[in-house]
């Protein structure tokens, strides 16, 4: 899989995350590892930073539920409007985590 194909797979998976649910960068990498041969949360983060503006980027958080750096306020508002459960300034991962089929 080429880097461009991998980026497209990452973005396609992010588009599937339902409203009010989230995935971590690492969970996205894990979900695509078998088909891509890659497994890097950092690479997913780079893809989201460069190309994630057209997908529901606010539904991608770190493993502890921290929202995208520099975009916390907007992500928080979007997630609240979707009914995502929060714990303080983080997403409640035990209730909001989503895994694809």
Description:
It is globular and about 40 Å long. The longest helix is centred in the N-terminal third of the chain and has 14 residues, at 3-16. The protein is 51% helix and 8% strand. The chain has 101 residues and is mainly alpha-helical. The protein starts with a helix and ends in a 5-residue tail after the last helix. The model has no long low-confidence stretch (mean pLDDT 95). It has helices at residues 3-16, 25-36, 41-51, 72-82, 93-96, and strands at residues 23-24, 60-61, 86-87, 90-91. A hairpin with a 2-residue loop joins strand 3 and strand 4. The protein has five helices and four strands, in the order H-E-H-H-E-H-E-E-H. Helix 1 (3-16) packs across helix 2 and helix 2 (25-36) packs across helix 3. A two-stranded parallel ribbon has the order 1-2. Strands 3-4 form a two-stranded antiparallel sheet. It has a single domain (3-96), classed as Winged helix-like DNA-binding domain superfamily/Winged helix DNA-binding domain (Arc Repressor Mutant, subunit A, Orthogonal Bundle).
Provide the descriptors you would attach to this structure in a database record.
101 residues, mainly alpha, Arc Repressor Mutant, subunit A, two-stranded parallel ribbon, two-stranded antiparallel sheet, 5 helices, 4 strands, 8% strand, globular
Instruction: Specify the overall morphology.
Output: globular
Output the helix-strand order.
HEHHEHEEH
Task: Report the helical percentage.
Answer: 40-55%
Instruction: State the CATH topology.
Output: Arc Repressor Mutant, subunit A
Could you name the CATH class?
Mainly Alpha
What is the CATH architecture descriptor?
Orthogonal Bundle
Instruction: Note the main sheet.
Output: 2 strands, parallel
Number of domains: 1
Going by helix content, strand content and strand pairing, the class is mainly alpha
* Uncertain regions spanning at least 5 consecutive residues: none
The CATH H-level homologous superfamily: Winged helix-like DNA-binding domain superfamily/Winged helix DNA-binding domain
| Strand line-up across the major sheet | 1-2
Ends distance: 21 Å
Instruction: Compute the number of strand runs.
Output: 4
Task: Provide a count of the helices.
Answer: 5
Radius of gyration: 13 Å
Question: Beta-sheet strand percentage?
Answer: 5-15%
The overall average pLDDT, rounded, is 95
């Amino acid at each position: 899989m080429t880097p461009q194909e991998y980026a497209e797979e990452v973005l396609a998976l992010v588009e599937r995350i339902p409203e009010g649910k989230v995935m971590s960068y690492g969970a996205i990498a894990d979900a695509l590892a078998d088909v891509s041969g890659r497994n890097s949360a950092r690479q997913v983060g780079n893809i989201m930073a460069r190309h994630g503006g057209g997908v529901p980027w606010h539904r991608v958080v770190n493993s502890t539920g921290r929202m995208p750096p520099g975009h916390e306020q907007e992500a928080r508002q979007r997630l609240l409007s979707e009914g995502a459960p929060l714990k303080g300034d983080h997403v409640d991962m035990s209730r909001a985590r989503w895994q694809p089929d």
